[in-house]
Amino acid sequence: MKSTKFVSWLRPFLVLSIICGFALTATAQNYFPSMVGNTWVLLSTDGAEQRTYTFEAPETVDGEELILYKIAKESVGTGVVVFDTSWVTVAEDGEIILHQVAFDRGAFGIAEATFDPPVTNYPAALPLGQTWEVVTETVLKLVGAATTTSILEVVAIEDVETPSGVFKDCVKVVINREAVTALQRLRENEILWLAPDVGPVKFQDTNEIVFNLVSYNLVEPPAVEEMPVVEEMPPAEEPVAEETPAVEEAPTTEETPATIEEPSAEEPVVEAPIVPKTFSFDLTLEPGLNMISIPLMPEEPYTAKSLAEMLAATMVIQFDAGTQHFVGYTILEEGDGFGIEGGMGYIVNTPAVGMVNFTGKAWDNQSDADADNAPAAPALSTYKSVWAFVVTSDVRGMQADTGYTLVAENLRTGIIATENITSDVKRSAAVWADMNRKSVVEAGDKLEISLYDERGTVVSGPFQRTVSTDDIRNAFLSLQLTVGDVQPKDTILAQNYPNPFNPETWIPYQLSKPTEVTISIHNVAGQLVRTLDLGLQPVGSYMTPSTAAYWDGKNSVGEHVSSGIYFYTLQTADFAATRRMVILK
């Protein structure tokens, strides 16, 4: 398999997301009807999330006609939708064959890959005990080579009850995934239930959130589907009543149909009220974070700045559907920020409780119900945690025509927020947001903030900041970054990765001062195997494959060394450290 596009090197956990979509592509013909136009809608048990599966019109890719299989994952009521797309073909026996994928992971970017040759995603038959695997190999800019293995197994045949009815003899497919990168090993588990001649009826994600089928449409519905409808609608008296109506027995007077036509002529007059041009709507905001939509269209469009001023909010966050990325605005920024649209969800932080009055006309693209359903977050009167948070920085000293990436990591949770910036942007904002409203930042958390250049080198930081209760109250933290202000506290030698390895590995290190750097490699007998003369290196962190020292597993004469234990030593003018590594063949 080859990758058609690099994903962001700052997002290694995208590898895990890649195979997540692979495991949910189509299944056999009897269990996942793959006709273009088929649609299934599954809703989480708490009603907060929705998954919509669709087969769409074929596209011609490299001269081959491929069916588009999409999964739309939506946070209900927010307007936030993330799409996973697969390009598949269906064999005559019903086997689903996977050719390409493009998985959108919101703020974490898009992962694209091509299978060459195509692979079997779901076999034609799914008997109890059937097991198969999908292996994906790709290259990420941060961690280099990455391999994800997904093992799928039919573990049970069981009946499934959903809001759409009871489906018998469904196959229960367990998906166990393991993603191995140079830096970490990640695991996930999901379950998908497939009903014969219907398709997906139930799904459980790795967080054990359960989704049930609420509606579906099949272009060619099977006869099996129609029979339960007749059995579940046994009020046979209704058809009997229609067959023997009393009115039909005495149609001697023609006044009855005339009487029926009169109310129908009057109805259009009743249903055409004169709608006022201007409305008013009161929206109550809880202290802390709120998810809102703008109920009415104002005479002058709102901006992030004007909306923040109107709500007395400290920050506003929107989800950019085009880039699938959270965008933050804080009151420290200059300018108006992004535009505010109707029918979209926005996260706002209002430290004080209050009611805001909106006036204006009805949105052209928003129903009246949308305004009534504008949700507010639970009160956060203690100001100890938030489910959305912005790290904002005024970056100085950026070079023209150079891209940079602001990276903020919560050291308690390990969750990373990023923002790509250029020299024409004065202030950047990295955003954490959990649409299920689970805490992402708490008072007392330590955040590590760094600025990387296009080569993956730290050009400012890393700096640590402790989140205060005032930061939580404002839902943002602000700091100053200057390109060139790189201040590692210590010179360190980190563990090589991968380890064990075959045949190559990367040796990461960090320098607290400019110095000549040499790495020597010895075998267990103490014999020198290879010397890596890295020369004069500036202050900085050399932790990524593009910056770390590279060893191809060969000795000084270009021969591959044998399996076993080896030792590598980092030597500078005033520092030396040794670590162990293992080659396995």
Write structural notes for this entry.
This protein has 4 domains: 14-218, YmcC-like fold; 279-372, no CATH class; 385-482, Immunoglobulin-like; 492-583, Immunoglobulin-like (Sandwich). Helices cover 11% and strands 47% of the residues. It has 8 helices and 36 strands. The strands form 9 sheets. A 12-stranded antiparallel beta sheet has the order 6-5-4-3-2-1-12-11-10-9-8-7, with helices on one face. The model is unreliable at 1-28, 105-109, 223-276 and 365-382 (pLDDT under 50).
Could you name the key traits of this structure?
single chain, 585 residues, mainly beta, YmcC-like fold, Immunoglobulin-like, 4 domains, 12-stranded antiparallel beta sheet, 4-stranded antiparallel beta sheet, 36 strands, 11% helix, flat
Write the layout of secondary structure elements.
Blueprint: H1 14-22, E1 39-44, E2 49-61, E3 64-75, E4 80-90, E5 96-104, E6 110-122, E7 131-140, E8 144-162, E9 165-180, E10 185-195, E11 199-204, E12 210-217, H2 223-232, H3 237-243, H4 246-249, H5 255-270, E13 279-285, E14 288-292, H6 304-311, E15 315-320, E16 325-330, E17 346-350, E18 354-360, H7 368-372, E19 385-386, E20 388-396, E21 403-410, E22 416-422, E23 427-433, E24 441-442, E25 446-452, E26 458-466, H8 469-474, E27 476-482, E28 492-493, E29 505-507, E30 509-511, E31 515-523, E32 528-537, E33 540-542, E34 549-551, E35 564-571, E36 576-583
Parallel strand pairs: 20-27
Antiparallel strand pairs: 1-2, 1-12, 2-3, 3-4, 4-5, 5-6, 7-8, 8-9, 9-10, 10-11, 11-12, 13-18, 14-17, 15-16, 15-17, 19-24, 20-23, 21-22, 21-25, 25-26, 28-30, 29-34, 30-33, 31-32, 31-35, 35-36
